[in-house]
Amino acid sequence: MDTLTIVFVVLTASLLWVTWQAKRLGQERRDVALLAAVAGALGIGSVVSAAL
Hints:
Blueprint: H1 3-25, H2 29-51
Helix pairs in contact: 1-2
């Protein structure tokens, strides 16, 4: 696996964890949605990086 792919996967996993924690702690919906959007973008980057 390429280094870029590993970085994207680690960042995606950590942002998913942070998003879940924020949701669990009752943070504002817009903050959780922003975290989820960034995690999704990194997830897409992971898929694209793995495909190349």
